[in-house]
TrEMBL record, chain A:
Record keywords, A-Z: Oxidoreductase
Cited InterPro entries: Ald_DH/histidinol_DH, Ald_DH_C, Ald_DH_CS_GLU, Ald_DH_N, Aldehyde_DH, Aldehyde_DH_dom
Keyword Oxidoreductase: yes
Any Pfam family the entry gives: Aldedh
Protein's name according to its UniProt entry: Aldehyde dehydrogenase
Domain of life, per lineage: Bacteria
Similarity annotation: Belongs to the aldehyde dehydrogenase family.
GO molecular function: oxidoreductase activity, acting on the aldehyde or oxo group of donors, NAD or NADP as acceptor
PANTHER family recorded: ALDEHYDE DEHYDROGENASE-RELATED
Domain Aldehyde dehydrogenase as annotated: residue spans: 47-482, 539-755
Gene3D superfamilies assigned: Aldehyde Dehydrogenase, Chain A, domain 1, Aldehyde Dehydrogenase, Chain A, domain 2
Active-site residue list: E265
UniProtKB/TrEMBL annotation, chain B:
Organism for this UniProt entry: Marivivens niveibacter
Protein name per the record: Deoxyribose-phosphate aldolase
This protein's UniProt keywords: Lyase, Schiff base
An example Gene Ontology molecular-function term: deoxyribose-phosphate aldolase activity
Reactions accelerated catalytically: 2-deoxy-D-ribose 5-phosphate = D-glyceraldehyde 3-phosphate + acetaldehyde
């Protein structure tokens, strides 16, 4: 018998290894390799690559490298299955999702062990976090399937979804992707990460076990090339990607102009803000959950600690003590806090970034880790914003610490990032917490907590952390579309305007149309004008705007950020006032539209509809509000609609007043500032608006209007890193150009071929516009005394 | 005066800056407490060792209105031989002195306990000061301590006046405990905070700190008679308070969760908490005690399972 006396002297934990017998057998049963799961069955094993256990380096499986033909077959199967799947009642689809939730629970330990062996993450996490969240996601979305028709009337599934997921939460990311897609009636082609494809393959078996109709879910394994084949496939209607910002950019460019929907969940460098009145022990434990969870390989990891100067020494000391207690090692040991890094390549990258940082004179503090593919928990102090450690996503167990003096200082530091995925705020002062939550640029904010997840809450980022949300009502929207009531014909693309003189245009008293920038009428930087034609020839001159005018307008719009902080009521008042002043000058606008070639009836209707639309968005300004999501116990999870910031709006050629205003109104109703490009052919209806805007108390910079060559101006807007979203209604080539040019700051895009949407009818307004004009911030507020 | 090589807490002047404004977030404390037992796992021989270690730290307790001399004698017999000889032998502990940390009784039972434990070296702990409510007049409470000490108690588990905490009357609380400590003389003072009646974890932290400043050798969660007894989040808060006090003064303070701790699993969970937050030193009876009575039976059953491989039944083990 073991020497109990010496064990009592030491009082160590010993080892508590998880049994792997069942998983070992499963892997042995598949030692010849895995094929893809296409059309309800596994394909023959093709050319394979090895999958290894990062903790031991042992090869554990061979998996087929997906070829273009494999992707073709998977997309074809998904396409074939989609109409029937979508036609099932919500209840029928709910039954399948419910079954998947149940079967995940029935195989919970198998999946947890397999995930740990494949990924290297500790069994505690797969067992207590990953797999329970997977089941929860399917349960939650079984519910969305059930009530889809009630909750999203008129919405339709997007079609075939191509989904590419990362290696950090292999099965959980699969659940996040496929549960909402299937609930909404889409079918799926999913590629798991090449490091970690095994739980996806096991899940395919589980889906088959649940009797999921063939073709509804297809799993194709492979590397980045396979992922690119899926994202670029003509038969895919929507692409959803989670992974690095770098690859997200490539996918954005690849899908530009394809008409595919796109959601991206990308990188982060999330702030972890500790105020002086925080429970410091709680915050220290928060750091453990933030950066020493999943080896720090978490997109929303709190990787930048910002701590108040007054408590920084104490906090640092507590944190170092806690860090030293972390146990790094065998992920299958139930006593392990941190397991293996997913692959030696990643480990080398982490080490390299830390060494680069070390060279800049920061202080690197590390706990210990065994040899092999492990990396020690690391705290780096003295990091300032100029350091690469501040801005580069390390994606490892490495956290930086920086001190701040004041609340403003903390916010400035927190927001000094290209990313905006998550933030964690620690203070016992609820006023301070909520104020910080409101001001921090992040899609998810945790108060006195970190890395909390639930299927009922939306997850996703601001800025270069991507767009779209996963989870909750907002997540469902990414997998639904609202078809146009009536589809029109594409507008002919107007030829680019040229500066011209000597056109013989005359008024009683000459009126000079200008640009509208920062609340003032401004001459174009070019100093040129172009001819505006009515049906019988030139009717006036419009300024020929250029990239410098866009620059000035974006500058003005950025300065108008106060508009986003105004109350909904205040914004509503301004919108009503625009309607009132437009109404007072209705005859003048009708006359202008007639000169530009409208019939009398159409002109009257266009002005009338514009006025009504002012009222409709004024009404929505204080009503398009958020939700309180039902997540975990004793938790208020607030889903807040926030403005995007600066929206570029490029108007269609037709309906020069209504088309333009249909874009401006929803954007400003929700607090955005707009840089609008007027109808290129008929800009004079827009330039007439300046006096209306000036008399309606629209603050300077909230609405800016540029006239001129549409696609040149759109390109400058799309490329501008201070523009947060661009809406473009123009040509097919223009749509592709805007999407491709948007990758600089990964701004949100909404592109449509002008003419297809009837702005005079019900498709010209609605909540869809408001959703486009906002982003959801989920704030988690735990309570309890 | 020293205990096991470290100096006894001498206390310090009342210093509210050591606790006023100290934040304790309930949700965060609960989250940490909830993962204490899921982040660490003690299996097989290690588990047996940890369970035997827990026995050494039990204040085997009877605090019932119907306690009698014979009842106390029975308890003391169990304290002296907490593990059946065949189990002890099977664990290779024949030559090891294995007793509970103490027995804990009412003051009038101290004499019986001292008598019953003669020659065992097991200390007798007595509750005192109008246990459990502590609302008898202060001079009587002080007298009660002196009585118990005179009867031979080595440790006195006092209860604090909750009102002083709820009104944040820290000097009254400090003075009261300091007087009690003086009355204890050489006996160790364990301050019962009755945390279930202090409600907030901030109050728990502050009361812990005042008790230590006033000279408590141990801080203890509960009498076992409050609506809510020992919980892990409360324990976490108290342990962090004694850690902070130690960092400030250099004194090592003991911790005693009491009330409602019944299972071997809990015996492991609290030891994990002490090891994680404080380290190996706090897994000794001079710095950690369980206030429990029925937990010992469950520990014996688990040890028998370890020894025989069969699940055991309560009726196979001597009751306390």
């Amino acid at each position: 018998m073991t020497d109990i006396i010496s064990l009592m002297d030491a009082m160590d934990y010993g080892v508590a290894p998880e049994d792997t017998k069942i998983v070992d057998q499963w892997l042995a049963d598949h030692q010849d390799g895995f094929g893809h799961f296409i059309d309800g069955a596994f394909t023959a094993v093709g050319q394979t690559f090895d999958v290894s256990n990062p903790a031991t380096g042992a090869k554990i499986a061979r998996v087929t490298q997906g070829t273009d033909a494999d992707v073709d077959a998977a997309v074809a199967a998904a396409r074939k299955a989609q109409p029937k799947w979508a036609k099932l009642s919500g209840h029928e689809r709910a039954k399948y999702l419910y079954a998947m939730a149940r079967h995940v629970q029935q195989h919970a330990r198998f999946l947890a062990v397999l995930e740990t062996i494949d990924n290297g993450k500790p069994i505690r996490e797969t067992r207590d976090i990953d797999i329970p969240l997977v089941a929860r996601h399917f349960y939650h979305h079984a519910g969305w399937a059930e009530i889809l028709a009630d909750e999203f009337p008129n919405a339709e599934p997007v079609g075939v979804c191509g989904q590419v997921i990362p290696w950090n939460f292999p099965l959980l990311m699969l659940a996040w992707k496929i549960a909402p897609a299937l609930a909404a009636g889409n079918t799926v082609v999913l590629k798991p990460a090449e490091y970690t494809p095994l739980t996806a393959l096991a899940f395919a078996q589980i889906a088959a076990e649940c009797g999921l109709p063939k073709g509804v879910l297809n799993i194709v394994t492979g590397d980045g090339a396979t992922g690119a084949a899926i994202a670029g496939h003509d038969g895919v209607d929507k692409v959803a990607f989670t992974g690095s910002t770098e690859v997200g950019r490539i996918i954005r460019e690849q899908t530009a102009g394809s008409g595919k929907g796109l959601t991206l969940e990308l990188g982060g460098k999330s702030p972890f803000i500790v105020f002086a009145d925080a429970d410091l022990d709680a915050a220290v434990e928060g750091v453990v959950d933030a950066i020493w969870f999943n080896q720090g390989q978490v997109c929303c990891a709190g990787s930048r600690i910002l701590v108040a100067e007054s408590v920084a020494p104490k906090f640092e000391s507590l944190l170092k003590t806690r860090m030293a207690k972390l146990r790094v090692g065998d992920p299958l040991d139930k006593n392990t806090d941190m397991g293996a890094i997913v692959d030696p390549v990643q480990r080398a990258r982490i080490a390299e970034l830390v060494e680069q940082g070390r060279a800049t004179g920061v202080d690197v503090h590390q706990a210990t880790a065994p040899d092999g593919c492990f990396y020690a928990p690391t705290l780096i102090t003295g990091v300032d914003p100029a350091s690469p450690l501040w801005s580069e996503e390390i994606f490892g167990p490495v956290v930086t610490m920086t001190t701040f003096r004041t609340v403003d200082d903390a916010l400035a530091l927190a927001n000094n990032s290209r990313y905006g995925l998550a933030a964690s705020v620690w203070s016992e002062n609820i006023n301070l917490c909520l104020d910080t939550a409101a001001k921090v640029k992040a899609g998810v904010v945790w108060i006195n907590a970190t890395n909390l997840f639930d299927a009922a809450a939306g997850f996703g980022g601001y800025r270069e952390s991507g767009y779209g949300r996963e989870g909750g009502r907002e997540g469902m929207l990414a997998y639904l579309k609202t078809p146009l009531a009536k589809q029109g014909k594409a507008e002919p693309t107007p030829a680019a305007p040229h500066a011209a003189v000597g056109l013989g245009v005359s008024d009683d008293i000459d009126r000079t149309a200008k640009l509208y920038v920062g609340g003032k009428q401004a001459r174009p930087d070019s100093g040129y004008s172009y001819a505006v034609n009515g049906p019988k020839g030139p009717v006036g001159l419009a300024p020929l705007g250029s990239r410098k005018d866009i620059r000035n307008a974006v500058e003005a719009a950025t300065k108008a950020s106060g508009w986003g902080k105004a109350t909904g009521h205040n914004r509503a008042q301004v919108l009503y006032y625009i309607g009132e002043n437009l109404s007072a000058r209705a005859a003048e606008f009708e006359a202008r539209l007639i000169v530009l070639g409208q019939s009398k009836t159409a002109a009257k209707a266009e002005v009338e509809t514009t006025i009504r639309r002012c009222f409709w968005y004024a009404a929505q300004a204080d009503k398009f509000d958020g939700q309180v999501h039902s997540t975990t116990g004793r938790m208020v999870t607030i889903a807040m609609n926030e403005p995007l910031g600066v929206v570029g709006a490029v108007a269609p050629d037709a309906a020069p007043l209504l088309g333009l205003m249909s874009l401006i109104l929803p954007a400003i109703a929700l607090g955005n500032a707009v840089v609008a490009v007027a109808s290129q052919s008929h800009p004079l209806a827009a330039t007439d608006l300046y006096q209306v805007l000036e008399t309606s108390d629209v603050p300077a910079g909230v609405v800016n209007i540029i006239t001129g060559p549409r696609d040149d101006l759109a390109k400058t807007l799309a490329q501008h890193d201070n523009v947060d979203a661009i809406w473009y209604f123009g040509s097919t080539e223009g749509c592709a150009m805007v999407e491709a040019a948007s990758t600089g700051n990964l701004k949100q895009t909404w592109t449509e071929i002008a003419g297809l949407r009837d702005f005079t009818g019900q498709d010209g307004q609605g909540k869809q516009f408001l959703s486009r004009a906002s982003q959801v911030k989920n704030i988690w507020v735990p309570y309890g005394e | 005066m020293t205990t096991n090589g470290f100096p006894r807490n001498a206390g310090c002047p009342l210093d509210p800056s050591m606790f006023e404004g100290h934040a304790v977030n309930l949700s965060a404390a609960e989250r940490r407490a909830a993962t204490m037992g899921t982040r660490r796992s003690v299996k097989k021989a290690h588990q047996a060792a940890w369970l035997v270690n827990a026995i050494k730290m039990i204040d085997l307790t009877t605090l019932a209105g119907d306690d009698t001399k014979e009842r106390v004698q029975r308890l003391c017999a169990k304290a002296a031989q907490p593990l059946a000889p065949h189990l002890k032998s099977a664990l290779g502990l024949d030559d090891v002195r294995l007793t509970t940390g103490a027995v804990c009784v009412y003051p009038t039972m101290v004499g019986h306990a001292v008598q019953a434990l003669e020659g065992t070296d097991i200390p007798v702990a007595s509750v005192a000061t109008g246990f459990p409510a502590g609302l008898t007049p202060l001079p009587l409470r002080i007298e009660e301590i002196k009585y118990a000490v005179a009867e031979g108690a080595h440790e006195i588990d006092i209860v604090i006046t909750r009102e002083h905490v709820l009104k944040e009357n820290w000097s009254a609380l400090y003075d009261e405990i300091a007087m009690m400590r003086e009355a204890c003389g050489g006996a160790h003072l364990k301050a019962i905070l009755a945390t279930g009646e202090l409600r907030t974890l901030r109050n728990v932290y502050a009361a812990s700190m005042v008790a230590m400043q006033a000279g408590a050798d141990f801080i203890k969660t509960s009498t076992g008679k409050e609506g809510v007894n020992a919980t892990l989040p409360v324990s976490l808060t108290m342990v962090r308070a004694l850690r902070d006090y130690g960092a400030e003064t250099g004194f090592k303070i003991g911790f005693k969760p009491a009330g409602g701790i019944k299972s071997a699993k809990e015996a492991i969970a609290w030891q994990i908490l002490m090891k994680e937050e404080m380290g190996r030193d706090w897994l000794n009876p001079d710095l950690f005690r369980f206030g429990a009575s029925s937990m010992l039976g469950d520990i014996e059953r688990q040890i028998e399972h370890y020894v025989t491989g069969r699940y055991s039944a309560a009726n196979r083990h001597a009751i306390a």
